[in-house]
Amino acid sequence: MALRLSSWTVSDFSHEVNAPHLSKFPLAVIENKLYLMKNIVVFTSLFLGSSLLASSDVHTNFRSKSTKRFSWGANAGPVGAVSIIIDKSDYELNVYDSKGWYATYPVVFGNNSLADKKMEGDKNTPEGEFHIANKRVHEKWCRYMGIDYPTAADREKFNARKKRGEIPANASIGGGVGIHGVWPHEDFVVDRYKNWTLGCVSMKNDDVKEVFGFTNTGTKVTIRK
Prior knowledge:
By secondary structure, the chain is of the alpha+beta class. The chain has two domains: 4-61; 67-224, Beta Barrel (L,D-transpeptidase catalytic domain-like). It is 31% helix and 24% strand. It has five helices and eleven strands. It has helices at 10-17, 27-61, 152-164, 188-191, 205-214, and strands at residues 4-5, 8-9, 67-68, 83-87, 92-97, 100-108, 128-138, 142-147, 178-180, 201-203, 220-224. The strands form two sheets. An eight-stranded mixed beta barrel has the order 4-5-6-10-9-8-7-11. The longest helix has 35 residues, at 27-61.
């Protein structure tokens, strides 16, 4: 569709610029049409550019809410055994059941580097295969599901790093790592990808209540980058 300027269109003008009878138009008319064409191009470029920037800002500043598998039941939850896979690079906690994928929740971590935990105090979130070891209502962060870090595999990595000199000889392996909520009314830290914990995985409070409700001690938790 051609963009119409009064009785003129872009296609009309393009045709006439190449037409042999162009000479019958005064120079001022031609210059005026060129000026209008230039303004159209500039305006369109600015409009498209600002639209793209606005779209980029939306993805940068806002997190999508948790997503779940469709179910007819209003209170339907996961079916059968549940397992959790946490992807650090995607800032996501995924729940799987006997039917496959069940839900995805946004999460944040400790250190912005998203590196594997090496020792106590580095604020890194450990990577590997774990299980929920304990659960409780948390006095500060809504709900808490502790995992069994450090495992035998974690101790093996820890000792190897000491031998290679990657960590101090007097370093401790650490512990007390789990999945929990945020301070009251501070879900926005998850929306803003703010890594604030000492190495734990942090969820929005309504989300952590859900996961707390359908997991048990022994539930498998995989954390990977």
